[in-house]
Design brief:
With 242 residues, the protein is an alpha/beta fold. The chain has 11 helices and 8 strands. It has an 8-stranded parallel β-barrel, surrounded by 6 helices. The N terminus is likely disordered.
């Protein structure tokens, strides 16, 4: 089955700038607006997650999207089929470019049906990059993180999803499963010498690109930098060198 996203491009067709997604992991819309102003002309794609969404970030996401900025809404949806479908229908109306949901087969199927015919790229979250093998065991799964990621990637492909979210440690293996056209979005990106924070499975921007990631999500190394613009430009340069 082909991926759901009708707007999916091959990795080669996208500019490096389009492949960097900056996470607006800040507490207020005012701070998010400041980040976007500082990165104007350098970054064209932003992620909005729980922290900002619950502080007025959904209206801000709609405003940015209406002006042509790409928005990755990181909501990691998981609920009964009808609830997921109705949520996805409204997110399509908001003009979002990407949306995450947990890669459970029924959840993915409901979301794909709700988004059919739109440009919304649905991303299946496999295993959070903050989780290692012991965390996965403690959560009750019988698989190690790598095996679980690959199993969920195959299920996402069969469901018709637009892409996968996984650590770059699994990207090469995921690419062999999903092929060249599905998005493979990689969080947990840390430039050389930077603090890993609460991420346990991290790679550098160049490593992620070489392994087959289509998009890199970077938050703290850019948003937390003294010179955000310079930090973003340095990451883009490293991506280009891969």
């Amino acid at each position: 089955m082909q991926a759901q996203s009708t707007h999916a491009q091959s990795v080669q067709a996208q500019s490096i700038q389009e492949r960097l997604i900056v996470g607006l992991d800040v507490p207020t819309v005012a701070e998010a607006e400041k980040v976007v102003r500082e990165l104007d002309g350098v970054v064209s794609f932003y992620k909005i997650g729980y922290q900002l969404a619950f502080a007025g970030g959904l209206d801000f996401a709609r405003e940015l999207a209406s002006g042509g900025t790409k928005i990755f809404l990181d909501m990691k949806l998981l609920d009964i089929d009808n609830t997921v479908a109705k949520g996805v229908e409204n997110i399509v109306r908001m003009g979002m470019s990407m949306l995450t949901l947990h890669a459970y087969p029924r959840t993915m199927k409901a979301a794909v049906e709700a988004a059919r015919g739109s440009d919304l790229c649905l991303l299946g979250v496999t295993v959070l990059t903050s989780m290692d093998e012991q965390d996965v065991i403690d959560a009750g799964y019988e698989y190690d993180p790598h095996t679980l990621v690959l199993r969920r990637s195959e299920q996402a492909l069969h469901a018709g999803m637009g892409g996968i979210v996984c650590s770059a440690e699994e990207t090469e293996a995921v690419r062999r499963i999903v092929g060249p056209d599905m998005a493979v979005v990689t969080p947990g990106i840390r430039p050389k010498g930077s603090d890993h924070g609460d991420q346990k499975r991290v790679v550098t921007p160049a490593q992620a690109i070489r392994s087959g990631s289509s998009h890199l999500v970077v938050a703290r190394p850019i948003v937390g930098a003294v010179d955000r613009r310079a930090a973003a430009e340095a990451i883009l340069a490293e991506m280009r060198s891969a």
